[in-house]
Amino acid sequence: MFEKEKKQVLDAALEIKRCNLVSLSGGNISMRVGENQYLVTPSGMVYEEMVPDDVCLIDGSCRVIEGIRKPSSDSSALVYMFEHMPQIRAVIHTHQPWATAAGFAADELPDFLVTIMDACKNPVKVAPFTPSSAVGMGELAVRYAGDSLAVILKHHGVITYGGDLKEALYAAIYLEEAAKTYVLAKAMGAGIPALAPELIAQEKAGWETYGQ
Ligand SMILES: [Zn+2]
Q: pTM of the predicted model, to two decimals?
């Protein structure tokens, strides 16, 4: 079941690896594919060694419906997010270093760069630490999501989400680029002025018609 979607999950996993948002088997990709049905990457498998059939189909209790692999250890957190954010269809969890570093410098990454405004939609909040492989990570992600498509998990990494995998992927990759700029600007001692709300709104409106 869901062969096309499993391939999309694997492609997204390879993309976060290619963009250096995770190392080895870190992070995970998940997708809502039906009522109470979710695809999730397997636990502890190096992405380049995965094939689409390694992607697990699980239910809302994290029981494997289809697949021979053990699902991601973060599955309970991911299912919690899907259940409490009905508008999302995809979640990406990474350990991306620039955004995680920025999480130690601020409680929120502001709307300071076009990539944050466009891909993350709104300022990205920093959630306090909670251990991985537990539902608490999902609870904090939901609590700190606000109107953004990303949350920075302090001492851990990042969670992004969206209406589809592409939206979650853009949020993760552009957040990392923006966070790198943020950290470098801070390191130079540069001030990062707040932009006028009407300019931010104009920028976001342009993104809606961006691309083909
Ligand atoms: Zn993690």
A: 0.96
